[in-house]
Each structure stands twice: as structure tokens, then as C-alpha cells.
Amino acid sequence: MRITIDTDVCIGAGQCALTAPGVFTQDDDGFSELLPGREDGAGDPMLREAMRACPVQAITVADD
Asked: What is the dihedral of CA 20, 24, 25, 26, to 10 degrees?
């Protein structure tokens, strides 16, 4: 599984970090980023829900 955050689209709403805090965090400027070692989602059951929760659809999840 591959997770991508489009940093040009992200507005820093934080819905991903609230929904799947085991995968996403926010950087010092408030924009979303993946936690180190969680680039594949680490089997988090809330990953796809976090993707759907993004108000600007900045997150994509692709099955490898």
C-alpha cells in the first residue's frame, strides 16, 4: 500500500491526524505528513476513513 499526501493541496485541516493518529501527524506549520515508519499505513483500520475525511482530498491510498 502506498500513501501520498499532496502538499500543494493540503490546507492543514488535521482531519487525517485526528482520524488515524497512528499514521498521520502535522508538521510545525500544521500540514499533514506521515509518521516515520508508517508510509504503508501499517495496517491501520482507519487509514481509508482518514483519506475520506480530508476536506480537500489531498490524501491518496494506492494498493500495490
From this structure: -110
Distance CA 57, CA 20 (A): 15
Place of cell 499526501: 5
Pairing of strands 59-62, 2-5: antiparallel
Q: What is the residue type of 15?
A: Q
What is the phi/psi pair of residue 33, to 5°? -155, 160
pTM of the model: 0.91
Identity of residue 39: E
Per-residue pLDDT tens over the stretch 25-49: 999 999 999 999 998 988 899 999 9
Beta bridge partners of 61: 3
